[in-house]
From TrEMBL:
It comes from Perca flavescens (American yellow perch). The keyword Membrane applies. It catalyses: urea(in) = urea(out). This is Urea transporter. It comes from the Eukaryota. Belongs to the urea transporter family. It holds the Pfam family UT. Keywords: Cell membrane, Glycoprotein, Membrane, Transmembrane, Transmembrane helix, Transport. The chain crosses the membrane at residues 78-99, 106-123, 129-151, 232-254, 274-292, 299-316, 322-341. It is found in: Cell membrane. The record marks T328 as: Important for channel permeability. It is a multi-pass membrane protein. Its main location: membrane.
Length: 409
């Protein structure tokens, strides 16, 4: 007698319902987006703000944005408040300018405002709860859709994204305009990096627990946060939306951490995740978001992450001479270079910006596109064969008719 367990007919629908319920909160939550379109403007704006917070990590999911926001409040409520204010002002400014409504609803005009708000609070020398900082925060966040639209009109010629270039431009503009000695909005004093590498301790002095935590901390440093709990919540938010994005975030942060050791970076900078956030973003962008995920593009994402780390070392030195932060300039420059690759290998397929989604959906789109191309190709081949048969059949019929006429009755 077979005593193996077999699920009953009542349990199978319950499992399918469970999977469907979980599926409602994964990916880009398309059903939620359609439901929000029929709601009040306040609910729509809340959805757009949460999606904008998550779009910093290439995620279009309001629940992920909510988890990331919780992580920001866990790190520093003042930073989180500035980030939400920047997202709100940037999104509303895009609406008033009449920019693309689909892009606004996806959070694409909000994420630069998120970073502008947070990093202006991080670089402020006045510390937390300096309320006057909200004024330049709102002004710079208001400029985010203006700069984004201007850069997009140029980048669209090559079908390239603008990434966080507006954030880099506006934050560096604010820091350069104020500086460390400003009476109202002083910034932290950024000293030039020494060209001589600091002498690190021996291998025995490595703190392996901090080394392990530097991976989630590097992911959290995308938002300027150095708490491992915040980094863990961000990784959980990425896992909810796309396991591929979550894996590449950890993979890129780990690659940046190891490259920091190879470049003899100070251990404290490695532990604080400053060598992981640019490489994490680069690895996500190449590893499934703008390229269809294959093992070749996965390897390409790792190479881009390592290249981004070298770019971080170089740009940090150059920017520190001007007393400016490196921000995410290394990520933007290195990833744009890798997106301009003109490869004839079919497995390295860069998607048009109009169809870019999360990696699993990008993979599904490519399979459907290949299937439709195969169907069209088979239809064309069948039509050509039918045309060839007709052309070849006409002389035979005519020959049979002529033979019939020539035979004696």
């Amino acid at each position: 007698m077979d005593n193996s367990y077999q699920p009953s007919y009542e349990e199978a629908p319950s499992r399918s319902c469970l999977f469907r319920a979980v599926g409602l909160f994964t990916g880009d939550m398309h059903l939620c987006k359609e439901w929000v379109k029929r709601q009040l403007v306040v609910i729509q704006l809340l959805d757009w703000i949460l999606r904008g917070v998550a779009q910093v990590m290439f995620v279009n999911n309001p629940v992920s944005g909510l988890l990331i926001t919780a992580g920001l409040f866990l790190q520093n409520p003042w930073w989180a408040l500035n980030g939400l204010l920047g997202t709100f002002v940037s999104t509303v400014s895009a609406m008033l300018l009449g920019l693309n409504r689909e892009a606004i609803s996806a959070g694409l005009y909000g994420y630069n405002g998120t970073l502008v708000g947070i990093l202006m609070a991080v670089f402020s020398a006045k510390g937390s709860w300096y309320w006057w900082l909200l004024m330049p925060n709102m002004f710079m966040s208001m400029l985010c859709p203006v700069v984004s639209s201007a850069l997009s009109s140029v980048a669209i010629k090559w079908d390239l994204p603008i990434f966080t270039l507006p954030f880099n431009i506006l934050v560096c503009l604010h820091v350069a305009a104020t500086g460390a000695n400003h009476p109202y909005f002083p910034e932290v004093d950024i000293q030039p990096n020494d060209h001589l590498h600091p002498t690190n301790d021996s291998k025995e002095s490595l703190n392996f627990s901090q080394l392990f935590l530097s991976v989630p901390v590097g992911v959290g440093q995308v938002y300027g946060c150095d708490s491992p709990w915040t980094g863990g919540l961000i990784l959980l938010a990425l896992l909810l939306s796309s396991p591929t994005i979550c894996f590449h975030a950890m993979w890129g942060s780990a690659a940046g951490m190891l490259s920091g050791f190879a470049l003899a970076a100070p251990h404290k900078d490695i532990y604080s995740g400053l060598w992981g956030y640019n490489s994490a973003l680069s690895c996500i962008a190449i590893g499934g978001v703008f390229y269809v995920i294959t093992w070749q593009t996965h390897l390409l994402a790792l190479i881009c992450a390592l290249f981004s780390t070298y770019m971080t070392a170089a740009i940090s030195k150059l920017m520190s001479v001007l007393a400016l932060p490196a921000c995410t300039w290394p990520f933007c420059l290195s990833t744009l270079i890798f997106l301009l690759i003109s490869s004839e290998i079919p497995v390295i397929c860069r998607l048009p910006l109009s169809v870019v989604s999360y990696p699993e959906e990008n993979r599904r789109y490519q399979r459907q596109l290949k299937a439709s191309e195969m169907v069209q190709h088979s239809q064309q081949r069948n039509s050509q064969e039918e045309a060839t048969l007709k052309e070849n059949g006409r002389p035979n019929v005519q020959l049979a008719v002529d033979r019939g006429r020539s035979e004696p009755v």
